[in-house]
UniProtKB/TrEMBL annotation:
Protein name: HTH araC/xylS-type domain-containing protein
Organism name: Chryseobacterium soli
UniProt-listed Gene3D superfamilies: Homeodomain-like
PANTHER family: REGULATORY PROTEIN PCHR
Ranges for domain HTH araC/xylS-type: 191-289
GO molecular function, one term: sequence-specific DNA binding
UniProtKB keywords: DNA-binding, Transcription, Transcription regulation
Length: 289
């Protein structure tokens, strides 16, 4: 059984450290101290709701919603305290990257764009997306995090894999913030559709229902949604269902048939086929591993 408050170092190299904090059995409250090394960038992904954070070095306080994240630069070694209340689970992933690694990666002396990116990172401009709100983890970011957490090889292959995924995460972060100044010009339809799917992906959502809800034809909905989120509506629904299914299977509290229904599949055969296509093994095999 896992320790009620367990912090796992999932990966460590000279330049990168990945830490997962998960308190699976909270009592009155959950608490953890996060250390940021001197001259380091820290990607912090908040994976459970209502996480409080207090940074000791500057007295800054945050209250994060589930699936928000920040990219923070720490010039000196510092400590932050994270906690939840009312028996909420405390779960977060910290990816710490040395300054020199980022400097060599971005090469700020090579061009103006690279210099501006590094300057924005050092000034901690990758914390508030807009209106003083931390950004949310996108579906693509979730997929990368899942790949990092599930990668089983060790040694040089793991190092190359992790570095490639972190570079991709940073690209997504930069892209997300580059779009913040044009947030008002982004069509509202994809955001409305996404919110509806997030709340209803477990049931059978028909294209006609989405079209009727926003008053736009189905082809326009598909085009705008894919342009905004880089996934089709169908793929996004499937991704949410598979993420939920995998979690429920690992928790082992429900029958496979019950999980299929919970995730929006009327027939367990269709669920098994979709799950195997997504993860390369059946729900039963994953549960028995």
């Amino acid at each position: 059984m896992r320790n009620p408050s367990q912090k796992d170092v999932l990966f460590r190299s000279e330049d990168i450290k990945i830490i997962m904090q998960e308190n699976s059995y909270p009592e009155k409250f959950s608490k953890s101290n996060m250390i940021e090394s001197k001259a380091s960038f820290n990607l912090l992904f908040l994976l459970s709701p209502n996480i409080h954070l207090e940074a000791y070095d500057c007295g800054t306080k945050f209250l994060f919603k589930k699936n928000q994240y920040i990219l923070h630069y720490s010039a000196q070694e510092s400590t932050a305290e994270l906690w939840t209340e009312n028996q909420d689970i405390l779960k977060y992933l910290q990816i710490q990257i040395n300054y020199q690694y980022i400097f060599n990666l971005i090469e700020p002396e090579s061009n103006k764009e690279s210099a501006e990116i590094l300057e924005n990172m050092i000034r901690n401009n990758y914390i508030f997306l807009h209106k003083e709100t931390p950004p949310y983890v996108t579906v693509e970011m979730h997929m990368i995090l899942r790949e990092i957490l599930s990668y089983s090889r060790k040694g040089v292959m793991q190092k190359l894999f992790v570095e490639a995924k972190i570079i991709k995460l940073l690209i997504l972060v930069f892209e997300q913030f580059n779009e913040k100044n044009t947030v008002e010009s982004i069509p509202k339809t994809p955001a409305i559709i996404k919110k509806f799917i997030d709340e209803n992906y477990h049931r059978n959502i028909k294209a006609e229902e989405l079209s009727s809800m926003v008053g736009i034809n189905q082809n326009t909905i598909r085009k705008e949604f894919k342009a905004q989120y880089h996934l089709t509506v169908t793929d996004y629904i499937s991704e949410l269902r598979m993420l939920k299914a995998k979690k429920l299977i690992i928790d082992k509290d429900m029958m496979i048939k019950e999980i299929a229904i919970e995730c929006g599949y009327e027939y367990v055969q269709n669920f098994t086929r979709a799950f195997k296509k997504k993860f390369g093994l059946s729900p039963e095999k994953l549960r028995n591993e």
